[in-house]
Amino acid sequence: MRWWSAANFVSNAGTWMQLTVQNLLVLHITGSAAATGLSMSVQAAPALFVSLLGGAAVDRWPRKLTVAVSQALLGAVAFTTALLVALDRIDMPALLVLAAVTGVIATVDGPACALLGNDLVPVADVPSAIGVGALVHSAGRLAGTALAGITVGFLGTGAAYAANGLSFLFVAAVVPFLRPAPGAAPEPAAGPRTVPAPAPMTVREGLSFFARRPRLVALAGITGLSSVFGRNYGLTLAVLVTGPLAGGAGAFGTVSTVLAVGGILGAVLGARLRRPSVRTVGLLAAAGALLQVVAGLSPSLAVLLVLVLPMAVVESVSDTAGTAVLQTDPPPHLRGRVLGVWSSVGTVWSLGGPPLLGLLMEWAGARGALVAGGLLIAGSVGAGLLVHRRAAPSVPLTVCAKDGDMTGRAALQTAA
Hints:
By secondary structure, the protein is mainly α.
């Protein structure tokens, strides 16, 4: 697990370095901010359409081999881009094609890497492993963003892509030496033999499981509301700081730094969760939403900075708890497809959320958007918890059966 975490840190740093440099490269080629957004959308779009197939592939193929091959392919794309940049042969169509290929490969690589990390620890420690992964991701993001400017300044744009290619090869080289921990979840290949399921590993099976699992549907609803109305701080807080609070780019940079620090602290706390649940995610989402309401009413930048830290901590712990539920609730042979469904749904939020939030800010302003969004999230979570509590049976069920009465035992099993 230590080797896997180190490899993920290197890979995350390289990925964020490339993402940062890619935006600069598009601006250099086209001079258009719209083209920059287009390149990001092209890379994210495959998750909307191909993630279901990617999740099915993760369930079907050996996990270590899948991760090693997908990482090697991502490295090949990065090296290809670096070569085109070095030869001054890169243009916008080529960059969009490479971004789309990266997005397609990521639909397999993302769930495969997530589930491989879970295989390296006992089942009881999976929530902690997910928290460690969130911490590594946050640290890699900070390191990669900082290294991007240094690399471009001293070695050029192509060097950042080459460095990312090397980071992928480093992960691929570590994978063969990883061994599952005693007590870890079984390999997905063993799933169809131990869990009754249709012979083919179909996409429909994953969709059906997700749709019929109330706790996963509830988790999707909570996360969707939070993602649209409560997580886009890069947009809402930027408008709040530079508008009503009369701050500048430096002030928003300070807010962003505090958000990043809070994310790291939250990942550390999330790694201590032992039994995360959808209820935990809902309560944390409601708490973060109420903090967001207060932040929307902040009279000064100093007050906002005090509130931003716990907002980021709560968000990070909630993310860790939600990811743990998502990766441990389905049976092992279905987890790849469930993650594929989740990726598709999450892409809808990421693509549709900012425009909806932008319309809300046009109508109500930055303060109004933060307050209205926070109240909507908190109210929805509270209503959901109330409905769930009222729907729960208040009278214990008693089943009387004689010894050997299989009908009675089946009824008891169903009730349980």
